[in-house]
Write a structure and sequence with these properties.
By secondary structure, the chain is an alpha/beta fold. It has two domains: 114 residues, Roll (Urease, subunit C, domain 1); 293 residues, Metal-dependent hydrolases (TIM Barrel, Alpha-Beta Barrel), CATH 3.20.20.140. It contains 14 helices and 17 strands. Helix 11 crosses helix 12 and helix 11 crosses helix 14. The structure holds zinc ion. Zinc ion (ZN) binds next to strand 5.
């Protein structure tokens, strides 16, 4: 089937490079992009047209790090640093997901909130619970969200009797979970919570499973000073945190590492050389006082950087708000660096929240020919009247900072329109 999206088309092909096409046409064939152009080619005259008028057709967002079972604690309990925050607030909330009705209700709401805010791709942590993890995957798939979800592994330093597995149980349940994943657009990813939570035996087993089944890995790295010190105590033979993953075959191409706030030059080089992908979580890093990550420096050094809402350390699920928080935080970094480092521009923030994430899933740059369409349409009609008429690029900047969910009138995921508001 041939379809055309008509409106102001804004995508980003590389960091800081924005492509704006006023009143352009995006050609779609069976959900795949066939081109972006100024007029309709003759042989497309019969295609169905989705006319979004003066709306902004933008790329949808990729949230590369968030915790599904922390959604119930969104916007609460951010008065403690990481390790106390996990023990006091997070583990008891995640334990609730042994209750499958509760999991169903929570995950249905989360999936709906993600897609209606324009997030069409995710890499998400579930809890320890195999059955609740399948429910999360099913609800995301039903809503039109695509990507990876991981059942969390944790056989030490959790809350024994409340939220912790035995080693054998963790391995067995991981295999049972993997064998039961039959979703079209939501795939499994191995998810050791972090080094502190997993014995060497468990980490070795996960490394083996990753290799045998060709699975990707997601975890946390160098988020907070106490966490780093404790990790070093558990692995006194290592110099740096990243080596505790490398030891077990978990440090490889496509491994996602959230935070990396305190990764030094040597660790950052190890990230780059292995093809590990950084997930920068600006809102969470500030909320629980983890630190101010030098993102701009990471980009200058050639690391792959993506963005995550990291709910519920992060308190904002919509990625347009996460992008704005990322830009603000990069300015804080600049002030801390005595104005020696550059901050991120809006165009750069948009790239990190869209193309940088989509590439993880094999997509090209921007609205690339051959890719399934992942897009949103923003209607900014109810933003305050400006002093002078705005260019499309100025409207784009305002949309990043000022969009609310109701402004997103259409969402396309994997080539299908999954949200439509009149
Ligand atoms: Zn996290």
């Amino acid at each position: 089937m041939r379809e055309i999206l008509k409106g102001n088309i804004i995508d980003t092909l590389a960091l800081g490079q924005l492509r704006v096409r006023e009143q352009g046409y995006l050609l779609l064939e069976d959900g795949c992009i066939r081109g972006v152009c100024d007029s309709v080619p003759e042989d497309w005259a019969d295609a169905a047209v989705h006319d979004y008028g003066d709306g902004l057709i933008m790329q949808s967002f990729a949230d590369m790090h968030l915790h599904g079972p922390q959604y119930p604690m969104l916007g609460m309990g951010m008065d403690l640093p990481l390790m106390d925050w996990l023990d006091t607030y997070t583990f008891p909330v995640e334990a609730r997901f042994a209750d499958l009705d509760y999991a169903r209700r929570t995950y249905r709401r989360l999936a709906s909130d993600l897609i209606t805010n324009g997030t069409t791709r995710v890499c998400m942590f579930s809890s320890l619970h195999t059955d609740a993890t399948w429910i999360l995957m099913e609800e995301l798939e039903k809503a039109g969200v695509t990507g990876y979800v991981g059942k969390v592994n944790m056989d030490r330093n959790g809350k024994p009797g409340v939220l912790q597995e035995e080693t054998e149980e963790s391995i067995r349940e991981t295999l049972r979970w993997l064998d039961g994943c039959h979703f079209e657009h939501i795939k499994p990813i191995l998810t050791p919570r972090f080094t502190i939570s997993c014995t060497d035996e468990l980490m070795a087993a996960l490394g083996r499973i990753a290799r045998e089944r060709g699975l990707y890995v997601q975890s946390h790295l160098s988020e907070n000073d106490q966490e780093i010190a404790f990790t070093h105590e558990l692995h006194p033979d290592t110099q740096r945190y990243w080596e505790t993953y490398d030891k077990f075959g978990l440090w490889k191409d496509h491994t996602l590492m959230a935070h990396c706030v305190w990764s030094d030059e040597v660790e950052r080089r190890a990230i780059r050389d292995a093809g590990v992908v950084v997930v920068h979580c600006a809102d969470s890093n500030t909320n629980i006082c983890s630190g101010v990550c030098p993102v701009k420096r990471m980009l200058d050094e050639g690391l792959q950087v993506t963005l995550g809402s990291d709910i519920a350390g992060g308190a904002q699920l919509p990625m347009y708000k996460v992008i704005a928080a990322t830009i603000r935080t990069s300015k804080t970094r600049r002030m801390l660096d005595n104005w020696q480092s550059d901050f991120l521009t809006v165009e750069e923030g948009y790239y990190l929240g869209t193309t940088a994430g989509h590439r993880y899933f094999g997509a090209g740059e921007g609205f690339a020919t051959g890719d399934k369409l992942h897009a949103i349409v923003i209607n900014d009609w109810d933003f305050p009247e400006t002093a002078k008429p705005l260019s499309v690029q100025q409207r784009f900047e305002r949309a990043i900072y000022m969009t609310h969910r109701h402004n997103i009138v259409s969402v396309w995921s994997e080539g299908r329109e999954v949200v439509h508001r009149d």
